[in-house]
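Bit of a strange request maybe. I'm writing a small parser for structure token strings and I need a real example to test against, not something I typed by hand. Could someone generate the tokens for this chain?
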Amino acid sequence: MIRTKWRRPLLASRFGPWMLVGTTASVGASCFFAIYSVLMRDLYSINASISSVAYAVAAALSMRFYPPAGKLSHKIGPVRAIRLGYVIRVGAFLARSELGLAHSGGPHWLALPLFAVVVASYPPIGVGSATLTPQLSPIAAGEGIGVFNATTAIAAAVGAHLGGWLAKNVGFSRVPLAAMVFFGLAALLLYTLRTSGQPTLEPGRM
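Reply from user aminoacidic:
Good idea to test on real output. This should exercise your parser:
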């Protein structure tokens, strides 16, 4: 729970909209990642041993993108860097959804590079978020980061349940589509951070 003394300054500042952005994106990510191996098996006919290795390789390769993501965030600002990562994920999830709808049996290997794109898009999101959270926090930076992480963790639990519900009741092909919708909404919600009368966020400001 957010302490009472924090609630008003957090929600009344641009940190409130930022928590909404992070929550929305966290639901979308968890919706997909929580059932990743099962989705790859049932939707794209790729067994867990292959999809797990693909996940590990994609995660390892994405580490190389953190230094350029930091430079990008410094150059264009954390908000734009985060939005870029969200937009890339929107495109990748849309392609995965269409691929799942068109799948007619046999392994669909194109799902693996599309998943790699989803993973590789995280560095600008992660770096931008780490910069933006303390910038926007109206309380101590560490406390603001803690509140933001706790909020997105709760959202991730909600997303995991949503992904399972969608897979069971609507179909696995709708899970990437749902993730796309959440990330698209998060990208749009980022524009609300510019509606406040607070100073404009400067690229690289810590």
